[in-house]
């Protein structure tokens, strides 16, 4: 039973990771999202919960570990000196309470924590960099590390000052949100309708789309945008000690900040402010989708630190999602890369918060049966910001007579092979390894940035290659010729030549990238690096069995079995042999010894309490972990050291009670020095 649950969890984690990555790309790059914010948040939190329950199954490419998506082609990349992180979400009062209690526990403080409360603006996040008070560059968030240079378009935004009042010396990076006020949104749509143009779906997409125009700049739209600053990445003046002080400084420099921001203390005041904001939401001049709460004291922010993609000192408390009614026209199965059949509901198009919704995933047969969704049903769909929602439920009173329960087909809708359902699992699959739908998704996976990064090999072209029979298995890609490709509809000689060149470049790769490109179940960049580091080259890995693979730290029994089964399959060995024959080469990796992973603090457990004088908690944690130790939040008999700083709290008393060694910051630094 436990193995079945792990298999189901691993499959769901994989599906959610790939699904969320696709929707993030649609949201950030194409400004054409297909699911609602509420649905994205639900899937994201489901993934977080699964990863918390099965941490060894978490994938290195999980969206829980990153912010946004990489910058799009055509824009000059801009590296954020200080990463632009996302925000963790609280979807209800219980989650808001849990966030605040975690912060208070980590800080080891008594009494209500001082917070800054701001409306969560529904726009596009940007960073403005000023040198000696003059605007020099503006960039989108991008993936949090590197954004897109949209300076030229930002200079058209009349609400954005090109010089800061008082001309502060040095470099200042201002973070904020570009929004399209509702009044301007309605005015622009009226003018577009008068010219026979399609109206903008919603203010957020209109704002983000204007910023990311490369050639045909819409000056009227850009000049209608507003900018609200909410923080500083660089250049915080020394006298500013609080988040509220940052907002005051931003206003002193001539920048607008979020309307209605206030200081609150503790949970009860935060909840009261949130409900008051929700009550006046409809009367605000801009769209908002929740409230943001930040720890006010900047020193405490540093102590709380950040996770991979979100700060621990801030949270977005989202508003309840909008809901609409529509009708199910049809339900059809979609086949994914691993052969999983996903039922999809085709809906009567409905406007949900300004976005037209026409499709919604029903996930699996169990979900359909649980909600009893049938063709012809009137259903409730919900969203919280943009686009295609989840089906919340069925309005049974409106069900027409004669409807029948819907079931997944017994045969794959693409290759007609009999489908199978995993024992104890919820996923129904097409087992045919030659299924065109599976091959299509494997080809797209091979071409992705984390694999062989084949520029120009997109979904439409892959469809043509499969439909014409030019590609029947993975290695066939590397036999394509420019003259053959040029004969395809809408291809052209230049595009054909570019693709052949991209495929030639992709032949020279690394072992980890090759392992990702092969599409081995559960093997993303992180696991690929672990396998490459252990075996050094492909042939020793081909000869390894599951027991040997399971000995690698970070590779659990599920991943080990899937890797071993993949390489035991003669079809996959044939693919690898053909790839070699066609000139695909990879650089070997020097095997990593166990000694290289040992550090001065290997296997030692630490607890931090109080404020350190030279290190923030994040810095101390990172240095301890880099030296092989681990940092926990609770003192126990298994704790090796408690590091006590100024104003240490109850953890210090607990350590003394249990007889755990207590050291100060200087002693910690000595341990780190080895």
Question: How would you sum up this structure, described in words?
Answer:
It is built from 24 helices and 24 strands. The protein is of the alpha+beta class and 674 residues long. The chain folds into five domains: 2-65 and 321-398, Nucleic acid-binding proteins (OB fold (Dihydrolipoamide Acetyltransferase, E2P), Beta Barrel), CATH 2.40.50; 77-318, D-amino Acid Aminotransferase, Chain A, domain 1; 436-506, 5' to 3' exonuclease, C-terminal subdomain (DNA polymerase, domain 1), CATH 1.10.150.20; 510-594, DNA polymerase, domain 1, CATH 1.10.150.20; 598-673, Rossmann fold, CATH 3.40.50.10190. The protein has a five-stranded mixed beta sheet. A five-stranded antiparallel beta sheet has the order 14-13-12-15-16. Strand 4 (124-131) and strand 5 (134-140) form a beta hairpin. The radius of gyration is 27 Å and the shape is globular. The chain starts with a helix and ends with a helix.
Mean pLDDT: 85
Percent of residues in helices comes to 25-40%
Quickly name the level 1 CATH class of the largest domain: Alpha Beta
Task: Give, in spatial order, the strands making up the sheet with the most strands.
Answer: 2-11-10-3-9
Strand content range: 15-25%
> Could you tell me the radius of gyration in angstroms?
27 Å
Please count the beta strands (DSSP E, at least 2 residues each). 24
- Number of individual domains: 5
Number of helices: 24
């Amino acid at each position: 039973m436990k193995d079945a649950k792990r298999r189901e969890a691993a499959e769901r984690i994989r599906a959610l990771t790939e699904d969320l990555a696709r929707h993030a790309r649609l949201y950030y790059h194409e400004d054409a999202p297909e699911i609602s914010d509420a649905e994205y948040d639900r899937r994201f939190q489901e993934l977080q919960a699964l990863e918390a329950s099965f941490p060894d199954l978490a994938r290195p490419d999980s969206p829980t570990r990153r912010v946004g998506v990489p910058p799009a082609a055509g824009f000059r990349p801009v590296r954020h000196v200080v990463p632009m992180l996302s925000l963790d979400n609280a979807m209800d009062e219980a989650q808001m309470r849990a966030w605040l209690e975690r912060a208070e526990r980590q800080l080891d403080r008594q009494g209500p924590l001082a917070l800054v409360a701001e409306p969560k603006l529904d726009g596009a996040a940007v960073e403005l960099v000023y040198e000696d008070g003059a605007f020099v560059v503006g960039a989108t968030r991008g993936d949090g590390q590197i954004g897109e240079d949209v300076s030229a378009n930002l200079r058209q935004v009349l609400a954005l000052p090109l010089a800061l009042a008082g001309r502060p010396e040095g470099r200042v990076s201002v973070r904020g949100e570009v929004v399209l006020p509702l009044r301007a949104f309605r005015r622009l749509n009226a003018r577009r309708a008068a010219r026979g143009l399609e109206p903008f779906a919603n203010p957020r997409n209109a704002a983000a789309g204007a910023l990311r125009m490369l050639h045909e700049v819409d000056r009227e739209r850009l000049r209608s945008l507003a900018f609200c600053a909410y923080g500083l990445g660089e250049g915080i003046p020394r006298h500013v000690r609080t988040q509220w002080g940052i907002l005051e400084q931003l206003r002193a420099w001539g920048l607008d900040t979020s309307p209605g921001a206030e200081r609150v203390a503790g949970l009860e005041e935060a909840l009261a402010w949130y409900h008051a904001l929700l009550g006046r939401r409809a009367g605000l001049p801009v769209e908002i989708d929740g409230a943001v709460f930040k720890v006010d004291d900047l020193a405490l922010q540093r102590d709380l630190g950040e996770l991979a993609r979100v700060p621990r000192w801030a949270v977005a408390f989202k508003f309840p999602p909008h809901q609409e009614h529509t009708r199910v026209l049809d339900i059809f199965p979609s086949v994914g890369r691993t052969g999983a059949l996903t039922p999809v509901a085709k809906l009567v198009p409905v406007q949900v918060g300004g976005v037209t919704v026409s499709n919604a995933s029903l996930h699996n047969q169990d979900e359909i049966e649980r909600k009893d969704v049938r063709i012809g049903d009137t259903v409730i769909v919900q969203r919280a910001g943009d686009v295609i929602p989840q089906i919340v439920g069925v309005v049974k009173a409106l069900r027409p007579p004669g409807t029948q329960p819907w079931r997944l087909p017994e045969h794959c809708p693409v290759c007609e092979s009999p489908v199978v359902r995993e024992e104890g699992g919820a996923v129904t699959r097409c087992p045919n390894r030659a299924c065109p739908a599976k091959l299509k998704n494997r080809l797209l996976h091979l071409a992705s940035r984390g694999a062989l990064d084949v520029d120009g090999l997109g979904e439409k072209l892959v469809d043509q290659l499969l439909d014409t029979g030019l590609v029947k298995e993975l290695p066939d890609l590397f036999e394509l010729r420019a003259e053959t490709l040029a004969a395809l509809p809408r291809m052209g000689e230049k595009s054909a030549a570019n693709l052949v060149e991209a495929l030639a470049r992709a032949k020279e790769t690394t072992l980890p990238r090759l392992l990702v490109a092969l599409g081995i179940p559960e093997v993303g960049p992180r696991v690929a690096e672990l396998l490459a580091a252990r075996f050094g080259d492909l042939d020793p890995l081909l000869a390894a069995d599951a027991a040997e693979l399971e000995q690698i730290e970070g590779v659990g029994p599920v991943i080990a079995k899937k890797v071993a089964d993949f390489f035991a399959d003669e079809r996959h060995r044939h693919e690898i042999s053909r790839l070699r024959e066609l000139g695909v080469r990879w650089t070997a990796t020097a095997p990593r010894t166990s000694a290289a992973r040992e550090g001065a603090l290997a296997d030692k457990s630490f607890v931090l309490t109080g404020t350190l004088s030279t290190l923030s908690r994040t810095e101390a944690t990172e240095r301890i972990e880099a030296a092989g130790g681990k940092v926990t939040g609770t003192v126990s008999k298994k704790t090796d050291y408690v590091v006590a700083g100024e104003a240490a709290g109850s953890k210090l008393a607990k350590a003394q009670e249990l007889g755990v060694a207590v050291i100060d910051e200087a002693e910690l630094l000595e341990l780190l020095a080895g």
